[in-house]
Amino acid sequence: MITYDEFKEAIDNGFIKGDTVQIVRKNGKIHDYVLDGERVEPHETLSLEKV
């Protein structure tokens, strides 16, 4: 699971750009974010959310 600090660091370092991000959730909790072009496993559920 990703922490708030890790997520904020990704934004601050320019990995996440713009005002939306694709989020991977597991059991309803944010597990990771997906960068453009990054592979997503078939069992992962994605949602597009505002940053």
Write up what this structure looks like.
This is Phage protein. InterPro entries: Paratox-like. By secondary structure, the chain is an alpha+beta fold. It is built from 1 helix and 3 strands. The longest helix is centred in the N-terminal third of the chain and has 9 residues. The mean pLDDT is 91.
Q: Could you list some keywords that capture this structure?
A:
single chain; 51 residues; alpha+beta; three-stranded antiparallel beta sheet; 1 helix; 3 strands; 37% strand
**Order of helices and strands, N to C?**
HEEE
Total number of strands? 3
> What structural category arises from helix and sheet content?
alpha+beta
The gross shape turns out to be globular
Unreliable segments of 5+ consecutive residues: none
What share of residues are in beta strands? Answer: 35-45%
* Rg calc: 11 Å
Estimate the mean pLDDT confidence. Answer: 91
- Biggest sheet descriptor: 3 strands, antiparallel
Q: Alpha-carbon distance between the termini? A: 17 Å
Q: How much helical structure, as a percent, in the residues?
A: 10-25%
Strand order of the largest sheet: 2-1-3
* Domain module tally: 1
Annotation field: number of helices: 1
